Amino acid sequence: AEPPLSLPRGVAPEDQRLFTREDGSFACRSDVAEPPVQSLSSTAVNDDYCDCTDGSDEPGTAACDRGKFYCANAGSVPQLLPTHRLNDGVC
Known about the structure:
Blueprint: H1 16-19, E1 25-27, E2 39-41, E3 68-71, E4 79-82
Antiparallel strand pairs: 1-2, 3-4
């Protein structure tokens, strides 16, 4: 069996498809075209620079004003937090 896919920090389960493209690229959440209009290298994810206007390339950093961080919240209810709240002890 293949090992489980390792997603970047802060990725919500519903956004997994953005990070698991066959060609290894990343597509911004707001780019719904197939193929995506703006395709980014996977190295652009969580690199502390906001490439996507919707912030979806930075789920684990505070680089984007509109970014969202997925908090699994083990033992409680999972939630999306604004990325400006990263590392503040909330999750």
